[in-house]
Write a sequence for this structure.
């Protein structure tokens, strides 16, 4: 198999953002999906499909705001039954809400994946 690929899944109130990378230089996929899955196996099948497509093992993190009222525990609670398979590994990554001055509106541009890229490069997806 090829080198592993990293996936960061960040559920939010408007959409679930997905970033897939292979190493620091290669972005494979950026996606905005519905805020919640329509099928309980959707996330495992997505991770398996990425593994088959790229011929690589997948390491995924579900990055959720641990203070949010709608967290990944409600959206993806059924996923954590099978988190370590031959094709993928899925970990939980609680994100603390940042305190201090609010960011400018431009920082929340839905096309901006820098925060998720940082999680991949920072080793959170390893």
């Amino acid at each position: 198999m090829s080198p592993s690929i990293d996936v960061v899944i960040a559920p939010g109130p408007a959409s679930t953002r997905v970033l897939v990378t292979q190493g620091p230089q290669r972005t494979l996929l950026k996606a905005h999906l519905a805020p919640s899955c329509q099928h309980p196996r959707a996330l495992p099948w997505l991770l398996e499909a990425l593994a088959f497509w790229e011929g690589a093992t997948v390491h995924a993190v579900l990055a959720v705001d641990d203070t949010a009222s709608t967290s990944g525990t409600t959206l993806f609670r059924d996923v954590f039954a099978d988190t370590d398979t031959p094709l993928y590994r899925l970990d939980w990554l609680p994100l603390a809400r940042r305190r201090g001055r609010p960011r400018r509106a431009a920082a929340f541009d839905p096309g901006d994946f820098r925060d998720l890229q940082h999680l991949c490069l920072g080793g959170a997806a390893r």
Summary: The longest helix spans residues 42-54. Residues 69-73, 98-110 have pLDDT under 50 and may be disordered.
